[in-house]
Amino acid sequence: MTVPLNQVISADFSVAMNPSTITAITPATFTLLAQGSSTPVSGLVAYAAVGNQLVFLPSANLAANTTYTATITTAAQSLTGTPLASTYSWIFKTAAAVSTVAPELVTTVPANNATNVATNQAVSATFSEAMNPLTLTNATFQLYMGTGVSGTPLLATITYDPINFIATLTPTNPLTANTYYTATVTTGATDLAGNPLGNTGPPPNPWTFQTGAAAVPPPIVLGPTIAAFGGFAGSAGMTNTGTLTVIHGDSGTTATGFSSYTGFHDNAVLVAGLPQCVYTETGANIGLVTGLIYSPLVVPPAGVCPPEGTASTIATANAALAEATTAYTTLQGLPSIGVLDAELGNTTIPPGVYKNSSSVGITTGPVTLDAQGDPNAYWVFQIGSTLTVGTAATPASVILINGAKASNVFWAVGTNVPHLNQSGGGTFQGTLIAYGSAGIAVSTVGNAAITTINGRLIGLNASVTLVNTVINVPTP
Known about the structure:
Blueprint: E1 2-3, E2 9-12, E3 30-34, E4 43-48, E5 53-58, E6 67-72, E7 88-94, E8 105-109, E9 114-117, E10 123-127, E11 141-145, E12 156-161, E13 166-171, E14 180-185, E15 207-211, E16 229-233, E17 238-248, E18 250-253, E19 261-262, E20 264-266, H1 268-271, E21 278-279, E22 285-289, E23 293-294, H2 311-333, E24 338-339, E25 347-349, E26 352-356, E27 360-362, E28 367-370, E29 379-383, E30 387-389, E31 398-401, E32 409-413, E33 417-420, E34 427-434, E35 440-442, E36 451-459, E37 464-467, E38 469-472
């Protein structure tokens, strides 16, 4: 597949990056070279925070029928100072012509003429193709009070999902009840080839909707302490086996005894300027916590960091447990809209609260959560007994589409999660809280394949056991 000569080059990062490290100035972290040339293509490199996206705008159209190599070096760093894991390059070939196909709106949320819209509803626009995130701003995506686009647009934050081509406008203040609003995306918004937004419809652009009487509360708001945790265990503690485990966030336990938290070290030097804490790591059991570790342990076994078990660290661990317990109770108490199947593999589930009083599996294939373009979409899975993900031979994944966010997915499990991809590999999405005494087990000792969790793993009354697991705490 070839790309047009007026193509803007882009790359999506998994986390927010430090814009000052995204540059084409020597020493460059991004370069674009035509095959056979050692001179980088000139142009502007920019970082779009709305989509964690690097954007390169060439100074002139690219050459026709030419192979190019784009490269991002490890000098590109996240906001926490973590460099790109390795230099990344990709190759593409140009076509013989300039693209002139205009992008179009595919869907909008709320829909045109929608009524009884929640006053805390975010507004989204889904496009037919990838857009240039630098052109999606408060000047091109706007929301007005009333049935037209006159007056002053509302203050709002604009974000962009480069995977699903969805721009979301989140008003700074709640919308007024029982009021008309009009949203619009102007032709200043362009695709990656620089073509301005078309307006053939449907849906119409601008589009109008009317709010109802009140906001619709989210299903759960995690407390500020537990929200920062990627992994947490109650009285039975946490264990890591393997050398590839990383928890991007805080971690901890309320359990006591040196064996209750093993195979981890924290990032205290970078996060808080403190000496690093190491908890019973061996050459075969190394797990990084990029935040801080909170536990009641009086002195970590390695003895190289300030004593844990202070009033502050104990209070933080206890606060995290209390907030997680409240979240679990709230989740299990929400009214459900449908019965959750015993097997979710190879199904697609729209937003809502679903209940199964027994056990649930995701074992025959992936389960897909479809937000249908709604940035407010959420899922709550109320499971009475166990949750099993994958089989002994094959992992299973949770897939998010059409704007679904891991931060809006919750799994409240009544007993335990005995096997979360015991074969290793796969991707699980959402915050998982297990209440029972048997805990959460990810992968199996000896598996090298990394299991990815975009969310949180929380055991209220039992252990959390990780094997080569990467946990990414989701942003709201």
